[in-house]
Amino acid sequence: MFRPKGSSYPWDAVRCAIKFYEKLGFMTQPVCHQATLARHSPPAELRKKLVQCPVVDDDGRQEGRGSERIFVVTLAKTYECPFVDNSNYREQAWSGHDLWPWLQKAGLALK
């Protein structure tokens, strides 16, 4: 999503996504970076629904995998639950990761 420099975080979009998936019967758990939550304080009604991604020094961002994506996929694998993300998990960036075999089989069916 494009935001002009200096604009606030699009919490309204997060709120809309939560509402959409909850209407479909899903329990939502939006994942956010600690830095995002610190820089852009979410509205109180959203804060209780957000899951803070653990801080990871070598988070894989340079390889095309960020810590939040790894965290989301790990949660989906652990709890065998559907997940929503805009990443393409078929990309080479994931081929060397421990989650690659799961992503190629059960994981893609849950995305």
Automatic annotation (TrEMBL):
This is Uncharacterized protein. It comes from Symbiodinium necroappetens.
